[in-house]
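Re: [ENG-882] Designed sequences occasionally contain unexpected residues at chain ends

Forwarding the minimal case from QA. Structure tokens:
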């Protein structure tokens, strides 16, 4: 059976279209978060959230795919292959940017941990080999939790430890979508550590 997704070359116009989709999601997120408590400062990464949900988009089909497409504001004129091509292009650009000297470091990574007997096609996992991991959530919950926490710790340079607490996962868990962001840089206006929290 043919793989339902492949990475294809994309145009600048297609990249812009998906960038506009990402911006719309950012507006949606900011509205939602700020409406909960308008007096609080907000720091979030819409890019990271969008990238994480793209992985769900790539693995989904049918009604699930429609729901994720709508959530991400991906227009119908962009095929799943187009979105995969843009994702791969941005992933390559991000890797190149890691090797340049900047005044800051910004890394974002997403990963889906999926129960090993769930139906994500091997070809999808092959295309996005760093983003999908089959795990045994039914029989090895604690081991899986430790492995996920280790991945988060690596991505955040040990700034976030034990993100997933003991007891968070149970045998009914079949999929975890995880995103980690690492930022190191100087702020124009510094934060006071005692006024920050996760």
């Amino acid at each position: 059976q043919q793989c339902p997704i492949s990475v294809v070359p994309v145009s600048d116009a297609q990249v812009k279209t998906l960038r506009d989709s990402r911006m719309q999601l950012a507006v949606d997120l900011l509205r939602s978060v700020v409406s909960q408590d308008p007096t609080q400062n907000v720091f979030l990464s819409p890019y990271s959230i969008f990238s994480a949900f793209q992985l769900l988009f790539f693995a989904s089909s049918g009604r699930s795919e429609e729901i994720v497409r709508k959530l991400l504001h991906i227009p119908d004129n962009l095929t799943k292959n187009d979105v995969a091509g843009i994702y791969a292009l941005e992933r390559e650009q991000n890797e190149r940017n890691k090797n340049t000297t900047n005044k800051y470091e910004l890394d974002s990574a997403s990963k889906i941990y999926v129960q090993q007997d769930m139906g994500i096609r091997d070809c999808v996992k092959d295309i996005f080999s760093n983003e999908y991991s089959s795990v045994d959530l039914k029989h090895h919950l604690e081991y899986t939790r430790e492995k996920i926490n280790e991945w988060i710790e690596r991505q955040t340079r040990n700034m976030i430890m034990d993100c997933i607490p003991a007891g968070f996962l149970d045998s009914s868990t079949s999929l975890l979508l995880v995103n980690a962001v690492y930022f190191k840089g100087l702020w124009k206006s510094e934060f006071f550590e005692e006024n920050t929290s996760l």
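QA comment: On inspection the terminal residues look reasonable. The longest helix spans residues 12-36. Proposing we downgrade this to a documentation issue.
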